[in-house]
Amino acid sequence: MKKTVLLQQTIFGLLLMFAGWSANAEVALSEEVVDRWIESQQAIMKWSEENKDALDGLDHEGIPSNVAEFVKPLKNSGLYSEAEDVLEDYGFDTPEDWAGVSLRIMHAVGAVQMEAQAANFDAQAQIDQIKNDPNIPQEQKDMMLKMMSEGLEMMERAKNAPKADVEAVRPQMGKIMQFFDSQGQ
Predict the structure, then answer these.
(1) pLDDT digits (tens, 9 = 90+) for 115-126
(2) pTM (2 decimals)?
């Protein structure tokens, strides 16, 4: 009986310890993490260009909304390990870790930008304007509305960015926007 209770307590303790490790496994965003992420973005873009042939034929459905969507092309192309090698040079253990930080930074950047532009943005008015413009061909309207829909989905995700991420990214916005500008984004 005592062995069973001891075993249960040990398993319970290990579960609590594992749960604690899992909860703390997500890295806090900091200036150092943002800097590593920017550097990794430059490296992974260069790597992607070098592997363009293998990556071009893959299905890319808009902007990834979760880690699995981010990593799927790497796995489907058979280039996961190579990408992992590139990202490890910047302190990311796996492409999933890098993708998670990427999404968190993107959502936080979006939240900061939304705060600045919230008063000047009326999505429904823009959608109505596109729908009702007789000078825009239907095919172009459909494409524009799809892009608007994806943008609104991104805004919704950004709106739900953790406050700690938003506050960590806010002082880094100049650096992040400079990077995006240098990439033509």
Answers:
(1) 777 655 677 788
(2) 0.68
Helix (H) or strand (E) holding 13: helix 2-24
Please return the burial class of 137, using the count of CB atoms within 10 Å of its CB with bins 0-12, 13-18 and 19+: exposed
- Rounded (5°) CA angle 33-36-40: 135
Q: How far from the centroid of its chain's Cα atoms is residue 97's Cα? A: 10
Interval 7-31 mean pLDDT: 46
**In this structure, what is the dihedral angle of CA atoms 156, 117, 184, 40, given to the nearest 10 degrees?**
-60
Compute φ and ψ for 55, nearest 5 degrees: -90, -25
Of the candidates 84, 48, 63, the one whose C-alpha atom is nearest the C-alpha of residue 146 is 63
**Which H or E run includes 19?**
helix 2-24
The answer to whether 182 and 42 are in contact (CB under 8 A) is no
